[in-house]
Amino acid sequence: MIGFSPRKQNITLYLGGLEKNAGLMSELGTHACGKGCLYIKRLSDIRLPVLKKLVQASVQQKTKSGAASKSKKSGAMASGKSR
Predict the structure, then answer these.
(1) Domain boundaries, the chain
(2) Model confidence over 7-19: pLDDT tens digits?
(3) pTM (2 decimals)?
């Protein structure tokens, strides 16, 4: 789902789908991004309600993609196909 790493330089959150939430990212506040990583120096630099929405969106995206891959696997097994 998500990962959290408090580091000396910043707080790192590992979230998926940041590029899909550009609107929320623009409202977040002072931050930096890497591939799937959100870097925050201090929580006071960002808007916490927006961060909450980003985390929720990441969890929903992971839940949907997990459900989709499970249904593909179970459909392949039901038809006798294996990977």
Answers:
(1) 3-64
(2) 889 999 998 878 8
(3) 0.71
